[in-house]
Specification:
The chain has 277 residues and is α/β, with parallel strands linked by helices. The longest helix is centred in the C-terminal third of the chain and has 24 residues. It is built from 9 helices and 7 strands. Helices cover 44% and strands 12% of the residues.
């Protein structure tokens, strides 16, 4: 029998480069926002410059990079990267437009209608009965419900607070007083059948939802044509959601509604920077 001695090889941290598919305008905007914030709070020192911090946070948001990996690659602690992420999310969310101001801006730019729709951002399922309200029967998944408004070209103009996944579109719209804000701004809205019954004004409707068939009432050819035209007009709202969901951090969203609301509103600001460039 022969004894063999195995010598463990020296280990070292390996760092690789990854392309961040964002414009320099977005990085510079975030870095400038951080510089102004540091000046306001009179913070004289950070372990990394604002531009580098902006790159790290954008990598976490865009590619869902693990905080520990980003920390190890930049010689900082994981808690530091988490603090930077939460700090910049808060700064961006504070710049997200309010509903009334967003609609007034659309009206001043000559817009006549906005597109409204709801979406479910999926979350991990938690044990116990407390998570049942986050289950959406429509999507057969747990998540948080959001309402969003876009202009006619599909650019996001506003996003609501997070609500449990079982929330109906109509319920969320009534809670946010969407109809009253639309009338105040002099705008109309195109919506799907999920918003049917939100606007009961037959003579001068603000929200157009199309026609629905039943067992006893079939749609006429004119009603079917109207639904097709409405579907074409509503298509850009899906583009707005697609741009928003390109941020991969939404793939494993927390179930904390307050944190989720700040995150979505921060991503709205970043999405508009990318889409409107």
């Amino acid at each position: 029998m022969t004894n063999t001695k195995e010598h463990a090889e020296d280990t070292c941290s390996l760092v690789y480069q990854c392309r961040l598919s964002l414009s320099t305008r977005t990085v510079n905007h975030l870095a400038d926002l951080l510089r102004r914030h540091l000046k306001e709070i009179r913070s004289r020192w950070r372990i990394l410059p604002p531009g580098k911090i902006a790159m790290i946070v954008l990598a976490v948001l865009r590619h869902d990079q693990r905080l520990a990996d980003m920390a190890g690659g930049n010689d900082v602690s994981e808690s530091t990267v988490r603090r930077w992420r939460d700090e910049l999310i808060g700064l961006l969310a504070a710049r997200a437009p309010r509903l009334d101001r967003a609609l007034m801006k659309v009206a001043k730019q000559g817009g006549e209608v906005v597109l409204i729709d709801g979406t479910l951002i999926r979350t991990q399922r938690r044990t116990g009965t407390a998570d049942r309200r986050n289950y959406s029967g429509k999507h057969r998944s747990h998540g948080l419900h959001f309402l969003a408004l876009t202009d006619e070209r599909g650019r996001l103009v506003w996003i609501s607070a997070a609500r449990p996944g079982r929330t109906h579109d109509n319920t969320a719209a009534r809670h946010d007083h969407i109809l009253a804000h639309l009338r105040a701004a002099g705008l109309g809205a195109l919506a799907d059948l999920g918003f049917r019954g939100l606007d009961n004004d037959i003579r001068d409707p603000v929200i157009v939802t199309g026609y629905t068939a039943s067992r006893t009432h079939k749609l006429t050819p004119g009603q079917k044509d109207a639904n097709r035209v409405l579907a074409v007009g509503r298509a850009p709202v899906e583009h707005g959601f697609a741009h928003l969901k390109n941020w991969r951090i939404l793939a494993k969203l927390r179930t904390d509604p307050a944190w989720a609301t700040r995150l979505l509103r921060a991503l709205l600001v970043l999405t508009n920077l990318e889409v409107n460039r």
